């Protein structure tokens, strides 16, 4: 057993995290760096599942705003998450990792279908699992997919990587006096109208008492520090956050 503070985590990356300085798609340098950090954290002893969004390629809401049928747009968004998941699988395998993409929509010529028991078995056998296609239904996001899968696999922490190093009382890009919270309860997030995840994802995490940590993965090394128990970013807990 490892000496880590967390043993099984689910890491949620937005699709935009893969873009780097590009406007669209995947920057190989960026995905390789992220994969290397995931590998380092796994080698330290953690079981790691990933969810990657699709916003670097398509989002259903954006396509609908441009005139497309919303459900078709969401299907395209879900397929975009499969593309990102395959890219991450490749990057992890290039580094010697063993990874499996599991999709919530059936597309099993290119990856496995999501089967909960099989996902847990992969993790137990030292494989990285990348959950693709969110919850498999339109009108949801990959934040919801991340919260749902984290609960299903019994993750002890959901990690949400963002461009900001935690949750602030106001937008730190606009207000120099913005203050970062070290810990929050789910109720505090609601009562103070703070933005952490979309509402459906947030409700799932809160109802299951799933601890969530928001941090900036643009800072190299943060993932491993969190697994070792360092207080990085903002921790949101179900009850009495200390
Ligand atoms: N999506 C969906 N159902 C899901 C997950 C995702 O329909 O369960 C679609 C939706 O259109 C979404 C897109 O896939 O906008 C990409 O996911 P998301 O917006 O969560 O990506 P991120 O913002 O994290 O890059």
Automatic annotation (TrEMBL):
Q: In which pathway does it act?
A: Pyrimidine metabolism; CTP biosynthesis via de novo pathway; UDP from UMP (UMPK route): step 1/1
Cited SUPFAM superfamilies: Carbamate kinase-like (SSF53633)
The Aspartate/glutamate/uridylate kinase domain, residue ranges? 8-216
GO MF term list: ATP binding; UMP kinase activity
Which Gene Ontology BP annotations are present?
A: 'de novo' CTP biosynthetic process; UDP biosynthetic process
Listed A to Z, the keywords are: ATP-binding, Cytoplasm, Kinase, Nucleotide-binding, Pyrimidine biosynthesis, Transferase
Q: EC number(s) in its UniProt entry?
A: 2.7.4.22
Pfam families (UniProt xref): AA_kinase
Q: InterPro entries given for it?
A: AceGlu_kinase-like_sf, Asp/Glu/Uridylate_kinase, Glu/AcGlu_kinase, Uridylate_kinase, Uridylate_kinase_bac
**Where does this protein hold UMP?**
54, 74, 135-142
- How is the enzymatic or functional activity of this protein modulated? Inhibited by UTP.
Enumerate the residues binding ATP.
12-15, 55, 59, 162, 168, 171
According to its UniProt record, which protein family does this protein belong to?
A: Belongs to the UMP kinase family.
What does the protein in this record do? Catalyzes the reversible phosphorylation of UMP to UDP.
Q: In its UniProt entry, what is this protein called?
A: Uridylate kinase
Query: What organism is this sequence from?
Result: Stenotrophomonas daejeonensis
List the lineage, top down: Bacteria, Pseudomonadati, Pseudomonadota, Gammaproteobacteria, Lysobacterales
């Amino acid at each position: 057993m490892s000496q880590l503070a967390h043993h099984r985590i689910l890491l949620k990356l937005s699709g935009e995290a893969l873009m780097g300085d590009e406007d669209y798609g995947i920057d190989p340098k960026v995905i390789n760096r992220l994969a290397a950090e995931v590998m380092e954290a796994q080698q330290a002893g953690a079981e790691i599942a990933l969810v990657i969004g699709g916003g670097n390629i398509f989002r259903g809401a954006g396509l609908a705003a441009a005139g497309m049928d919303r459900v078709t747009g969401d299907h395209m968004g879900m397929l975009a998450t499969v593309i990102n998941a395959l890219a991450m699988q490749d990057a992890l395998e290039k580094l010697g990792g063993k990874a499996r993409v599991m999709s919530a929509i059936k597309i099993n010529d290119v990856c496995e279908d999501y089967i909960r028991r099989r996902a847990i078995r992969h993790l137990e056998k030292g494989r990285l699992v990348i959950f693709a296609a969110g919850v498999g239904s339109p009108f949801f996001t990959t934040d919801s997919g991340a919260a749902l899968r984290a609960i299903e696999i019994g993750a002890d922490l959901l990690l949400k990587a963002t461009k900001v190093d935690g949750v602030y009382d106001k937008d730190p890009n606009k207000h120099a006096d913005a203050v970062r919270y070290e810990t929050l309860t789910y109720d505090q997030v609601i009562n103070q109208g703070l933005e952490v995840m979309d509402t459906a994802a947030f409700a799932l995490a809160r109802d299951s008492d799933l601890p969530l940590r928001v941090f900036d993965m643009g800072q190299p090394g943060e993932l491993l520090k969190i697994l070792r128990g360092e207080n990085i970013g903002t921790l949101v807990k179900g009850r009495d956050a200390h």
